[in-house]
Amino acid sequence: MAVKVIIPTPLRAYAGKQESVQVQAKTVAEALTALTTQHAELKKHLFSEDGRLRSFVNVYVNDEDIRYLQKDQTSVREGDTISIVPSIAGGAND
Amino acid sequence: MSVAPLKIHDALMRRIHAHGVETYPHECCGALLGRDGEGSREVLDLLPLANQRNDSPRNRFEVTPDDVRLAEKTAQEKHIELIGWYHSHPDAPARPSEFDRDHAWPWYSYIIVSVQKGEPRDTTSWRLHDDRAGYDAEAIEITAHQASI
Questions:
Q1: Which of A4, A29, B25, B108 could, after both became Cys, cross-link B84 (CB 3.0–4.6 A)?
Q2: Could you tell me the pTM of the whole model?
């Protein structure tokens, strides 16, 4: 299935300055693997060292947060749009 | 790597300081909207947001993905970009903590204002390294005249 992955502005420099990337995938996990295979520099910004999606990286399939679907096993269909949306966190040390 | 200074109009910087004073002793946060060009970056507007870290607002802030999307939409409507974020460090220095670094995104400018005993003090801006290992300080250039949106 050809799906479109929308790249957030702060990560476009690691995706050939593209706003979106087309990948072939049946699930969100496959799409993110295909994306980081095409653009390896994205990997450290999307995944922690243990290979899990970073907690402040949010993934939507057609505006639905995958946390409320089947997470990274959420299936995707031809023409679906996957959006990577940051959440922002920080703060002073304790 | 050196980065271009971040320009911001004096009135906008005073709004960031006022937000930090208003929420003291809790952290404030908001979006920086503006333009990013070759060798120049300028804040042209702000979108103050509610700190969603209700469990520990004195030393943490959080902006939800819905608020990030709101900030992007607000910028698009003004034909500018979401270029970064600001937050306060109540009674703490205006430098990124380890927690800041661990949660930061590249490319965005991160303005930090130190609010000491309810008064705004040092203000700094930072950008995460490409390898996520550290930050570059980004000079802040306070302007008297603001480019039009």
A1: B108
A2: 0.94
